[in-house]
Design a protein that fits this description.
- By secondary structure, the chain is α/β, with parallel strands linked by helices.
- Helix content is about 30%, strand content about 30%.
- It contains ten helices and 15 strands.
- The strands form two sheets. The protein has an eight-stranded mixed beta sheet.
- The protein is globular.
Length: about 325
């Protein structure tokens, strides 16, 4: 059993607390927020003891009762909280992105490697059974040799608020930092030691607050696969992934937030079918269970959760993507 603490009680903190109820290897023990009202509401909703709710994040990290911490604060606070968690010997699941840039991510890498503290970045779709089924199709050569992959994630926000976490540069706003990890982590599923990602070019636009609100990146995986990622805060994109092979096409209509029942489309020249995936748990519960099993040194049936080494690789690409728009 892993006893968890949550730092940051915004929307994702609530999602985590609800999802943890679905799994048997984890228990929510403590919470921390700088908001009194959120602390009270959260504690009442999830049965947190008065002694285990904190306004000071460090006080939660000092609590001996917890084994691991889920960090769901603003993007600009992630690295400092990762380092504080390491000092307090807490296992870590941190919301994406790990930091605001590669320099910050490398600080986290150094601390994690030096301390040998288990760490994962919270990119939940990677632990969902649908992702495992996709890779089985690829490994079984269902569509033949892959030559192109497309991945998109975007939604239209009608009103730009300068103090919103999505549009405030100081908070780590922007489409690339907030959404870019999804297509990049998806492309990483198709890499290997011999076939790594290389940057080709990118373009995009910035909104009135100075952060990117729409961007596209072109990459190469090895020498044979073109990868194109698109993110947006000003357009409703298809939010799908397509893998093109010489024998057919695989489409994931809901790659990032698959429901309890989802499907993958497989097209050949003369056939079309859907491969259904049924999950007994929500996508976030699946992530919690997989991460907790890793923390407990148990065998993980789906080992696609994002560790610190992959977080660094993702951030390298995000840095290249963002810098190309300046």
């Amino acid at each position: 059993m892993i006893n968890w603490g949550i730092i940051g009680l915004g929307s994702m903190g609530n999602v985590f607390a609800n999802a943890i109820r679905e799994v048997k290897n984890s228990k929510l023990v403590a919470v921390a927020s700088k908001s009194n009202s959120k602390l009270e509401t959260f504690s009442n909703n999830f049965g947190i003891k008065s002694k285990n709710k904190f306004k000071v994040y460090e006080d939660l990290l000092n609590l001996q009762e917890i084994d691991a911490v889920y960090i769901s604060t603003l993007n600009n606070t992630h690295v400092d909280l990762i380092l504080d968690s390491i000092r307090n010997k807490k296992k870590i699941l941190c919301e994406k992105p790990i930091g605001l840039n590669l320099e910050q991510a490398n600080l986290a890498l150094k601390g994690i490697k030096n301390s040998n503290i288990p760490f994962y970045e919270a990119i939940a779709y990677r632990s969902h059974p649908q992702t495992k089924h996709l890779l089985e199709l690829i490994y079984n050569n269902v569509i033949g040799e892959i030559y192109k992959i497309e991945a998109s994630f975007g939604f239209k926000i009608k009103r730009i608020k300068k103090d919103s976490r999505l549009f405030n540069k100081d908070y780590g706003g922007g489409a690339i930092l907030d959404l870019g990890c999804y297509p990049i982590s998806f492309f990483n599923l198709f890499t290997s030691k011999e076939n790594k990602i290389s940057f080709i070019n990118a373009k995009g636009t910035n909104c009135s607050t100075g952060v990117d609100d729409d961007a596209i990146i072109k990459l190469k995986i090895g020498e044979k696969i073109d990868a194109i990622g698109t993110v947006s805060l000003r357009k409703n994109l298809k939010n799908e992934c397509k893998i093109y092979g010489k024998k057919g096409i695989i489409t994931l209509p809901s790659p990032w937030l698959p429901s309890l029942k989802s499907y993958i489309e497989v097209e050949h020249s003369k056939s079309y079918y859907k491969k259904f995936t049924t999950s007994q748990k929500s996508i976030y519960a699946t992530q919690i269970e997989s991460v907790a099993n890793s923390f407990l040194n148990k065998k993980i049936s789906n080992a696609n959760i994002v560790n610190i080494d992959e977080s660094i690789e993702i951030m390298k690409v995000l840095d290249q993507w963002r810098s190309s728009l300046i």
